[in-house]
């Protein structure tokens, strides 16, 4: 079971790093993984990241940083819906 949890945590870390890089590329804005985690992670995912040995900076960002991350994620999702398949 621990191997599955470790794999899940590593996948989460990769996902947030991907989102961070995608936002920088698309919107030319820098957002940290910590803001993205706080803006997007489920309670269980947040707990798993916090308890793991995977290095994901999840110290508490400001409310403004989290809200900006929420806005950027929403914009990124909207762009994806607008793109033709």
Summarize the structure.
The chain has 85 residues and is mostly helical.
Q: How would you describe this structure in keywords?
A:
85 residues, mainly alpha
β-strand number: 0
Distance between the termini: 37 Å
Low-confidence stretches: none
Q: Sheet with the most strands?
A: none
The DSSP helix count reads 4
Taken in chain order, the helices and strands follow as HHHH
- Average pLDDT figure: 84
Into which percent range does the helicity of residues fall?
A: over 70%
**Roughly what fraction of the amino acids lie in strands?**
under 5%
Shape: globular
Roughly how many Å is the radius of gyration?
Answer: 13 Å
Report on this model:
The protein has one domain (2-82). Helices cover 74% and strands 0% of the residues. The chain is built from 4 helices and no strands. Helix 2 packs across helix 4. The longest helix is centred in the N-terminal third of the chain and has 26 residues, at 2-27. The model has no long low-confidence stretch (mean pLDDT 84).
Please describe the topology of this protein.
Blueprint: H1 2-27, H2 33-40, H3 43-51, H4 63-82
Helix pairs in contact: 2-4
